[in-house]
Amino acid sequence: MSALLHFDAVSKRFAAGLQALSEVSFEVAAGEMVFVTGHSGAGKSTLLRLVNGADRASRGTVLFEGRNLAKLGRRTLPAHRRRVGVVFQDHRLLADRSVFDNVALPLLIAGYAGAEIGKRVRSVLERLGLGDRGAARPAMLSAGEQQRVGIARAIVAQPPLLVADEPTGNLDPQLAADVMQVFAELPARGTSVLVASHDLPLIKRMRRRTLVLDHGRLIDDFRPPAEGGS
Ligand SMILES: Nc1ncnc2c1ncn2[C@@H]1O[C@H](COP(=O)(O)OP(=O)(O)OP(=O)(O)O)[C@@H](O)[C@H]1O
Q1: Which of 55, 110, 117 is closest to 79 using CA atoms?
Q2: How far apart are CA 5 and CA 64, in angstroms?
Q3: Which residues fall in a coiled-coil region (predicted)?
Q4: Banded model confidence at residue 63, pLDDT cuts 50, 70, 90
Q5: Is the CB of 13 under 6 A from ligand 1?
């Protein structure tokens, strides 16, 4: 079976001449949760932006579900974006809409019927411990709740892949652990996860595969040994 995500010798050079990624190759299989780490400026955000179609590789090939993302055009990009949920550090919620409406947005865009939207939004809010916050405006919520609303919005349409860029950067350690727990449960529900983070203690605790970038180069692809293995 082909990989969900495939990077083959991918480089990204910005107009200013800066090489943000150099010949990066790796694959992510369906059902994996993978961290991307490295120093500030190592290329983590750049890598994630190539995956969600926000930017394009300068060289090399990025395949998602077997499709070459270099070939995405105005007509096909929206469909790709619907298959990759995105979580940012600054969750980018709509301030003048309720929590429910914020989370419902991807389903509205995908053309779901009203009753189905209600069912799915209530279910995902419940799962993230936000069952009683649907009517609230984002500004009325704590930072941790707002981040969970952002996650709810990213996963409500059950995309095959979730990419998250420093999703716990603003959260205290307990909330960060809670968010990681939510992510860790996604692969079993059909959503693979790619998380950029520089929080090494957190990554270590999660015991998941970790890609390490250094000045745009992939210098390690670490898979922790299975628990209980010898
Ligand atoms: N649009 C852009 N134009 C020019 N250079 C850019 C652009 N975006 C990123 N860069 C540069 O590419 C390099 C990699 O940046 P990137 O944001 O991917 O790093 P990062 O690992 O996510 O860092 P951080 O942890 O600080 O967010 C940096 O040197 C950055 O300045």
Answers
A1: 110
A2: 5
A3: none
A4: very high
A5: no
Give distance in angstroms: CA of 145 to centre of ligand 1: 28
**What are the C-alpha distances in Å from 138 to residues 22, 68, 106, 130, 171?**
39, 37, 17, 12, 16
Ligand 1 centroid to Cα of residue 111, in Å, is: 35
**Inter-residue contact 221 to 209 (CB < 8 Å):** yes
Instruction: Judge contact between 64 and 84, C-beta under 8 A.
Output: yes
Q: Residue 51: CA atoms inside 13 Å, Cβ hemisphere, count? A: 33
> Would you state the torsion angle of the CA atoms of residues 22, 44, 72, 9, taken in this order, to the nearest 10 degrees?
20
Decide whether any atom of ligand 1 lies within 6 Å of the 42 Cβ.
yes
Q: Which atom of ligand 1 is nearest to the CA of 43?
A: 18
Confirm or reject: Cβ of 12 under 6 Å from ligand 1.
no
Per-residue pLDDT band at 143 (split at 50, 70, 90): confident
What pairs with residue 13 in β-bridges?
19
Bridge partners (DSSP) of residue 86 are: 163
Beta bridge partners of 63: 6, 68
pLDDT at 9 over 70: yes
User: Distance between CA atoms of 44 and 10, rounded to whole angstroms?
Assistant: 13
Q: What is the ipTM of this complex?
A: 0.95
Ligand 1 pocket mutation, candidates 10, 37, 44, 214, criterion most atoms within 8 A of CB = 44
Measured CA to CA, the distance from residue 187 to residue 162 in angstroms comes to 10
